[in-house]
Write a structure and sequence with these properties.
Distance between the termini: 102 Å
Largest sheet: 6 strands, antiparallel
Shape: elongated
Structural class: alpha+beta
Strand order of the largest sheet: 38-40-41-42-39-43
Number of helices: 15
Helix content: 25-40%
Radius of gyration: 41 Å
Strand content: 25-35%
Mean pLDDT: 79
Length: 890
Amino acid sequence: MSLFKARDWWSSGTALDEAAVDLFNGSLKVSQIGPEGSGDIVIFGAPNGLIQIFRPQGAYQPTDVILEFMTDKPILQIDTGKLMPGSSIEHIAVLHPRSISVYMLSSKEGHTEYGNQNILLEQYGHKLPRAAYCFVVGPFGNVKERDFICVQSLDGLLMFFEQDVATFSCFLPNFLLPGEMSYSHCADAFITCNSNWVIEAFSYHNLSQVSDANDGKSIAVKKPVADWEYNVGENIISVQKIQTSNNICAFVLLGERCLYCLNDNGLLKFMKKFDFEPICSHAYLIENNARFMVMVISETSTLLIYEQATLLWSCQLTFMPVWIGRGFFTNLPGSLVMLTDYGEVKCCYLGTEPELFTAPPLPSNEVNFDEAQVELEKLQVIISSQNDISEINLSKAASERELPFTIFIDKNLIVDDSFPRSEDDTISHDFYKCKVEVKIKPLDRSNIELMQVTFVTQDPVVCSDSNQLITDITDDISVETEVCIRSKVPIGTLNIGVVVLFTNSLGQIRILKKDEQLPFQLVYRLNPPKKDSKYKVTLAANKSTVDLLELFNDFKSETFTELGLSTGVVAFSSPYSDDSPVTIISAKSSQRYRIQCDNISIMEGVIKEFLHRLLMYFNKRPHLRDGENAMLKVVLYGGISQDILQSFLSSIDQHTVTRQELVNVEKSLDVLSSQFILIQKRLMIKYRERPPTSCEGLALLLEDTVSKINKASLDILKLKLDVFRFGCEINCGIHLIFTLLELVEPKIENLDIIKNALSTDALHDCHQAWEETSILNALYLLRTIFAKSEKERDKFVPLNSDDSIVSYNVKDIIKYTRLLLERVMNRQESSPDNDAVVKEEQQLHSVDDLEGEIDAEYKDDNVFQIPEGSLYGQRQPILTARLEKQNRIE
């Protein structure tokens, strides 16, 4: 609350109706029309066509209203000038959307006590060929005792009228939207702000020379050239001309955040940056043009008065003005004339008003927590009732019906010749790309105005055109793109998402998304199987094992024979990673499959494709379904091995350490760059010295610095590639772990929460990568859902970080990630449902039966024997150790 307030002196007491207020733009003019000494009058034009003329004299009286005149057209702007041929009397110009009219205020002396009779007589008018925006009045061409009119249209056409005669028209250059305009008689030039937020000045002479015709009907084809330009970089709200001396003028420009003052030659005189949003302004001179004053209205209804860029006074208003000016009335010279946002004219003056109100003391009643809890629960019920998920689902279903679309993926792959091949490639591989097409069939094309189709993939899978904007929706739409691999790194997922965003006729934005899998052959190739592998996953199904060659029958059959593959053994490799194959083995007498490889980065894609094909295989063969085992069910047998978990944690370790090295090298490069600049400056000083001195030492230092900068730049490029590669390994590892956790039986509780906590994208292109986005979430889960006791809630504290990867402790990141995953798996193993499953499997297959079964399966196989360390071969070393111990005892 402010002690300084503007005091009301006079008010019109009338306001516009709501329809007029909606169109209101503030057409107000304070001018002296009439005999000298009578003071200024206030002319107000409303959008509903009403013209009101006031002569304030103090407290409002009905006699203050000189005239009210109703026109049949909306009023855009009002101005005054010597606009009548052969007359030096001020006339009133009124701008309508399609015309401009000039009126004369005539006063007839009255014979009674009611005073004089005032009449507004129309002298002449001009019809405008284009919709008008604003106009200016002035002595164009430095004429004497006359004023001309220039009207700016909505499309940038300037129409000039020498009083009652139309002269010429021309277009403004670089025009998009109309802006504020003013005229300076000192420079005989017009200034305006174009859509590029650049102030331009055009002299009247150049504008008149552009047009060859003088009939006023022809439009110049040539575009005028600006005399000068000034880039303000923001939209200009108002432009006002101030004459600072006899031959010098200045322009005051009010922007959205700043106030500018330019000379008539385009030089900046001063500028003031605001920390508020200005509404309107008015500039004036006082003390014989010695002091330059500017009044500004803020969005908080505060009047601020500046002397150039220095704040002198501020006061609070009780209303929101949209226009401000000064008026010299008989009883109050220098009054502040303002127009409110509801169409009322007010005259105020500056003053003080002591505030006698004192704030009452706060109530000291104690809070009843039980009542507050009951009230909080009621409010939560109300909030939850407003957020009805069923309405969201209905809206989504309606959007899917309104805009159905289908994704088609071409299985015929194309050889990608643009893939970068290194000289170290000893094996010639073919790298492929595929076409993806989205067909959209809108039900009501007139209801959709704009559409955007976005293809979402995870690096290193990229699309040739990931974003496509569609504006012409007249028929069914087909959007195509090509999907390829951009670098030779592990590929985490072959999922491609299509997001369709469209805007309907009501302006509502709807988003639809669908996911599809890219062809398996895009990344994987058939490969000879490998006997021993480090990482193994065993899957158990409720149906008999199938022929693997039939399961992958889309590969060439002659390739199976060449690579030594059989019905129970297939292997795949990826040319985008190493040549380590992923081998799938199916048991002959049990319902189990084993998937093994030496690199977990390529295992997840094979497992997911194998499960998908296995499900499709049984869905196409209904005769294989029976009673309880009608649907295929595949579970993880034996849990996730520690080797897989350790490999995933190793990728996190390498990714974090490499990112830290990258940050350190970038900092050293900054230091070297600063050093390089300092050496250059010192060399310049040495060259200018008289007599010249030796520069050998600086030259050697400069050469050494340049070599270090080159080395640091090469190290940064290499480290960025390593960060990208290790990030892709993290993507592959986390996708594999989530895929295996989905196969655990019984199902893991809160699995969706874990998936949201640990990001499946390394985010190597962002400032915050996998570590910043996942570790804090893991700590939160360890403190809440997976906490073993209340003491552990305070044990896992957030990492001390200053938002820099350098401050992270790599050991803590590895520890918290391992702890979260182990607690997820340990909790599942200790659950009662899991104990029942283990007992059931022990009844069906004892360890001895399983060992004999696998020995019989692979004894005749020339390629495979019992792999050491696998679940199939763990029993044999145990029996051997027991026999040796028994022999020693005997």
